[in-house]
Amino acid sequence: MNWIFNITALELQLKKISFFWWCFSWSSLAVFFISVFETVAGEQGLSQDFIKSIPPELAKSVNIGNNYLEQIESFISGQFLTFYLLIGGIYLTMVGINSISGKIQNGQILEYIFRPYTRSQVFIGVYLSNLIFIVVSNFIVTISLFLSAEYLTDQSDISLNYFIFFYLGNILLQFFFLNLGLLFGLLVASGKQVGIGIGMVVASWFINNILNLTDLPKALRFISPFYYFDTSLLSSDFALDNFLSILILFMAIALSVASYYKWRFRDIQV
User: 133-166: buried (b, 16+ CB within 10 Å) or exposed (e) per residue?
Assistant: First the structure.
């Protein structure tokens, strides 16, 4: 079983720079957003006037509630989480695309095949490194948010449940986008995967927000991956929607299985 450790360790070594900058950037932004909240939290009149000026449908779509500028959890959902979901979706889709397909294009995949490792071993090792990236990076970002909220604000009733479900929700959504990118990279012609992949993520993000602003049938919301992370429920009840969470988990697993079988029969000539 040494092959698992060898491939996973090599992949993590290749990801160490991107891992550092990803965690450092978002941890720094966490401190920045919490500092902004602390600056404006005392302006009660400004808070209410600002919230009342926003159309209710728009406020709901971007997680702005009545306590948006008074409760740190609501502020994180309305500001930090909005950007983190979109950029995280884009980034993990790119990671998925480059995990196998990118290595085929630049010839790195041959280093594994010639060692030799089987295709199944390569897939499992690369996959595990991506899972470790998601789990550890989200833990660091979530801890940075929690500690910033704990020590940089005067709020005494900070909810630990909020940050636990913040962590789990982001892992689920990024896990889905990782597998989506992995399959997409193996299906689409080289040179087009990244551009089209980013376009799909951004489009799905806008679709989710547009559907929240309109009276279109609720069933249409299922077409956007962002719908499955119910951020409004996270903000109000400090919880996740169990049904949606299980559903996106199974969809991510289905994508990973499809990616594995596509990889087994993929031509690796470069």
Answer: bbeebbebbbebbbebbeeebebeeebeebbebb
Distances (CA, A) of 114 to 31, 89, 153, 177: 46, 33, 55, 30
Number of other CB atoms surrounding residue 249 within 10 Å: 15
The reported pTM is 0.88
Q: Give the pLDDT band of residue 216 (cuts 50, 70, 90).
A: low
> Which of 124-138, 140-154, 183-197, 245-259 has the weakest average pLDDT?
183-197
The answer to whether the beta carbons of residues 236 and 128 sit under 8 Å apart is no
Domain-wise residue ranges, the chain: 2-264
pLDDT at residue number 203: 92
Residues 259-267: what's their mean pLDDT?
86
